[in-house]
Design goal:
With about 450 residues, this protein is α+β, with helices and mostly antiparallel strands. About 65% of the residues lie in helices and about 10% in strands. Strands 1, 2, 3, 4, 5 and 6 form a 6-stranded antiparallel beta sheet that branches.
Length: about 450
């Protein structure tokens, strides 16, 4: 700590009526005081109040929406956000940071003092008074600016957690759809293999096919049954992920599976995506707020060379007339190496925050390029696999079955044709899933486009 220079003027008498007036003024100063919030504090508090009215009205969790299988997907999204403990933790971290702005911009609390002089076991003087510290010019404002920037960083972390919750729910819902599609396709294939097994038995009975064909059909059916069982197990895992995305703990009855969310719109051009991401991405905004906080810390560090003050007044209640003793203290920032180190550390912190922001901007551009490519690739795959290819594979299977029935083809040709058809159908389902996931990640996580149910009174744009 800096040395402090304390000046105490000599005692002087004060008429009782003046002292009483001074005491009343001091009491008014000490009781019921409130500071004046700045623009940043008022804006942050208004933003918090706006979100709190829907997210945590009166500090309590609101009534969660009723989940029904026939209900809109938006209700599931809102339920997830209101019930997700990670979103809740981010919200309260933001709320705490907003309240810290008031703490940082407020004046230091005054102190009541009491001194006594005792000689020969007799009370000779009883000094009671009040003192307060006065930080150097601009220090409280700089501290409030730092706290305001930190609260903005926490807000964007909260926004990112809301969007992540909405994305996680959408992701697992699309995965469930894709898995159900795969199971349905495999069950159809299992029925086809059963027909092929019967056909092979007929061909074997008339001497057109060996028993090996029947056994091969049974082997393929067993493999397919194992694959279906694995997918059924995977569905249990996805349902557990669905519960987790909704914030429902283990042991609570599983929620119904909602209707499928609407498909994502096609991706924008890469240039437009980058432009929107730079303006709206919550991770970038949080890091920009950290840069602003570091700049405020640098400003405060530069003010550390300015002295702080303390003033006070004490009254000797034993003296007649009552004696007042004013005092003034001044800190002496004489340790210049300490001040220089404080400023250098703040400059390094600001440079670090700026570098991390630049690195995040570069990484975000790479992520956008990758997800855009994935969405375009998956879109091309969906177009290809939903066109003539499945129809041709189905025709090829029909021809192979017909040829095998007439003894003009072997059983392997039929099995291979059946595998090609199934692989194309499964590939189409997987491509549709990857397209939706890539587009959802671009829209929700990178462009901060809050889906219906994830926006709180337009606090999240």
């Amino acid at each position: 700590m800096f040395p402090r220079l304390l000046l105490r003027p000599a005692r002087y008498g004060t008429p009782p009526c003046r002292f009483q007036v001074g005491l009343l003024l001091a009491s008014a100063f000490l009781v019921g005081c409130a500071g004046m919030p700045g623009a940043g504090e008022a804006g942050a508090q208004g933003q918090l109040d706006t979100v709190a009215r829907q997210y945590r009205p009166a500090g309590e969790r609101p009534v969660l929406p009723r989940l029904e299988a026939s209900g809109p997907f938006d209700q599931f999204v809102l339920y997830a956000i209101l019930n997700d403990p990670q979103v809740e933790a981010a919200y309260y971290a933001w709320a705490a940071s907003v309240h810290r702005i008031t703490v940082e911009r407020s004046r230091p609390d005054p102190r009541l003092t009491l001194q006594a002089s005792i000689a020969d076991m007799a009370l000779m003087a009883l000094m009671a008074g009040v003192m307060t510290d006065i930080p150097g010019a601009g220090k409280r404002a700089a501290a409030a600016d730092i706290a305001t920037a930190e609260s903005q960083s926490k807000y964007f972390a909260f926004e990112a957690s809301v969007l992540q919750s909405a994305f996680s729910l959408r992701k697992v819902r699309f995965q469930l759809d894709a898995l159900d599609t795969k199971v349905s396709l495999m069950h159809k294939t299992a029925g086809l293999l059963a027909q092929l097994e019967k056909l092979a038995l007929v061909q074997n009975e008339v001497g057109r096919a060996p028993m090996q064909d029947v056994l091969q059909a049974r082997i393929e059916s067993a493999r397919l049954a194992s694959d279906i069982a694995n997918l059924d197990d995977a569905r249990h895992a996805l349902l557990a992920q669905l519960k987790a995305a909704l914030g429902i703990p283990e042991g609570v009855v599983a929620p119904p599976v909602s209707a499928a969310p609407p498909p994502s719109p096609p991706a924008l051009t890469a240039d437009r995506l980058n432009e929107l991401a730079l303006a709206r991405n919550p991770r970038l905004k949080a890091m920009q707020a950290e840069v602003n906080a570091a700049a405020g810390s640098l400003q405060l560090a530069r003010k550390s060379a300015q002295p702080d003050f303390s003033i006070g007044i004490e009254a000797d209640w034993k003296a007649r007339p009552i004696m007042l003793q004013p005092s003034l203290g001044i800190s002496l920032p004489i340790w210049r190496d300490k001040t220089r180190a404080h400023i250098a550390a703040a400059q390094a912190s600001k440079a670090e925050a700026s570098a991390r922001l630049s690195a995040e901007q570069i990484a975000l551009a790479v992520d956008i390029a990758e997800k855009t490519f994935m969405s375009r690739e998956a879109t091309r795959q969906v177009a290809l696999l939903s066109g003539n290819l499945p129809r041709m594979a189905s025709d090829a299977l029909t021809l192979a079955q017909s040829a095998y029935s007439g003894g003009k083809s072997d059983f392997n040709s039929v099995i291979n044709a059946q595998k090609v058809l199934l692989e194309l159908q499964l590939a189409q389902s997987e491509a549709s899933l990857q397209r939706e996931l890539a587009l959802a990640e671009l829209s929700i996580l990178m462009l901060a486009t809050a889906p219906p149910g994830a926006s709180f009174n337009k606090a999240i744009p």
